């Protein structure tokens, strides 16, 4: 028995398939696909359909080789493997032109689209894709609309709550007003630093500077120890941001807690990406080798400034075995991952209290804590991310999106029940 590869859609009269992690193809004669059933088909039935449209057994063999038609017994594992490698490629290469794909790789929504499809197939659900415009793609899971690339609201959230969560200062104020420990901070217009000096006198160094409205630790400069460092970073921020947050730097381990449908499902430790010197290669070459991208283009000017704070540049050759942090805080797979069973029970009620305050179904919170195996009242909430992103190979991505699939299907079934009762 065989199935048609579900990674396909009909667009402007042609079928498009993702047949390999880095290869999408177009089939101009859609009769080849239209004649084959969408569920399991016997080889003879497929051959008859092809013959009716003027094709022979060689076409069938070509479709097998191209992963257009896949044996049922290996179908899920093969598609999931293809999607996993596709996500790895997306994380290494950020430019569209480097990837031959039917998806939208440069768009954050494109990454999520692939993650959702992978999660649905892992749960044994059926998947159908629909392309309706150059930037518009929908994903149906068990025939329920689950994802729309042009729909700004991904997780069926309250839009007002999302707007609050996208501002670091507003989130900080909201959580502080409900008794959560947050860093002392001030919101400043980049063109008016008149209150900065008095605020620093109040909280003292070290401090942290970050934009008010960016996510995923972008342009975040922690542990600033003096005015000389601060002035350089302020000059950099003036080029990119209208409003910045200045807050007291909090020492400790940084963790990200992932919350789905009001429940804590797991966590990762966030650390800075690093390279190990070999006494020969520059920091830039080491970063390219380890993370598969050009240092300056792939990591932004923020990372160059982080190196300058350490007295080095991307052209510096670190000594053998020297560890050099290269600035980007992330949740890569080589950092610690905590499944729900590994986390102290009090963090579950902690997350539930935050969920009741911020009114979001799916989010992540960054906290400073000594450990996740133990809980104490010294936990600081640093940031909140609605619809969080994931570092390369992060196992929490699968758990998060599988929870999302289950939530969407449950929600839509409830809505259908309501409609039936109303009738």
Characterise the protein shown here.
With 423 residues, the protein is α+β, with helices and mostly antiparallel strands. Helix content is 37%, strand content 25%. It is built from 13 helices and 18 strands. Strands 13, 14, 15, 16, 17 and 18 form a 6-stranded antiparallel β-sheet that branches. A 4-stranded antiparallel β-sheet has the order 9-12-10-11, sandwiched between helices. It has a 3-stranded antiparallel β-sheet with strand order 2-3-4, with no helix packed on it. A hairpin with a 2-residue loop joins strand 7 and strand 8. The longest helix is centred in the last third of the chain and has 27 residues. The chain is globular and about 80 Å long. About 1% of the residues have low confidence.
Q: Spans of 5+ residues with little confidence (pLDDT < 50)?
A: 294-299
Strand content: 15-25%
Number of helices: 13
Structural class: alpha+beta
Task: Give me the count of strands.
Answer: 18
- Shape estimate: globular
Radius of gyration: 25 Å
Q: State the share of residues found in helices, binned by percent.
A: 25-40%
> Largest sheet, if any?
6 strands, antiparallel
- What value does the average pLDDT take? 86
Distance between the termini: 41 Å
